[in-house]
Amino acid sequence: MIFQERPSTPPIVKNLIIANCVALLATTLLPFGDAIIERFALFNAAGPLFHSYQVFTYMFLHGGVSHLFFNMFALWMFGRTLEYELGSQRFFTYYMVCGVGAALIQLGVSYAEYVHLAESAGMYAATRLLAIPTVGASGAVFGLLLAFGVLHPNNRIMLIFPPVVLKAKWFVLIYGLLELLFGVSGYQAGVAHFAHLGGMIWGFGLLYWWRKKRKIYF
User: What spatial distance separates the first Cα and last Cα of the chain, rounded to whole Å?
Assistant: First the structure.
């Protein structure tokens, strides 16, 4: 829970949530749902399934209801305040830059992993990586967490697990360090930890670029 309420959900946040929900319904209910994943999820750049537009489309796809719910809840919780403050156009730009930036980081990491595995274990083992898709809005959402922590460092956030209250700046710092630790250690295989970090890194860079250009102040 964040102690800063907004009276309604602004248009970009609302439409992003709708788009993500519609995408999950399409991939779940339509008979060609698997083909949608194969075409629009983010795949390893070394493989035949990769297309450049996937750096945009992957963030609207999710692996299930729980994956979608947590991402959309975070988008709704943090995105409302940020959209009101940044304005809808700038908020959408920020969200997309974080999402695409996360995809670029993930592509670099997954390609390096492919090359390393090919050299150490052979092409057969490495080829299996080419069929593993990356989906989800998490990279963009982590960018929102970063922005909230930068713009509202002393706002308090109530965590559920564990049930503690943290200032936003500490929440973002701890979360970022955990993602780095999990990514380097390989903990929680199947989670794109470096994509999460990528969203935060690109978001940080864009915020400070805007600050340098005197478009925002913090």
Answer: 23
Q: Is the pLDDT assigned to residue 176 strictly greater than 50?
A: yes
127: exposed, middle or buried (Cβ count in 10 Å: 0-12, 13-18, 19+): middle
Handedness of CA 13, 100, 192, 163 (dihedral sign): negative
pLDDT, tens digit (0-9, with 9 covering 90-100), for 124-156: 888 989 999 999 999 999 999 999 999 999 998
pTM: 0.91
Task: Please state, as a whole number, how many other Cβ atoms lie within 10 Å of the Cβ of residue 153.
Answer: 15
Give the pLDDT of residue 6: 53
Copy the structure tokens of residue 183: 């990514």
- 165 burial level (CB within 10 Å; 0-12, 13-18, 19+): exposed
Q: Which residue has the tokens 């925002």?
A: 216
Q: What DSSP letter does each residue of 56-85 carry, written as one string?
A: HHGGG--SSHHHHHHHHHHHHHHHHHHHHH
Tally: H helices and E strands in the chain: 9, 2
Structural domains in the chain? 11-212 (1.20.1540.10)
> For residues 26-35, b (16+ Cβ closer than 10 Å) or e, as one string?
ebeeeeeeee
Please give the C-alpha separations between residue 214 and each of 132, 148, 159, 176, 210, in angstroms, as whole numbers: 42, 18, 33, 27, 6
